[in-house]
Amino acid sequence: QVRLVESGGGLVQPGESLRLACLASGFTFGDNAMGWYRQRPGKERAPVAVIGAAGVGTTYADSVKGRFTISRDNDKNTVYLQMTNLKPEDTAVYYCRGADTWGQGTQVTVSS
Question: How far apart are CA 94 and CA 90, in angstroms?
Answer without folding.
Answer: 10
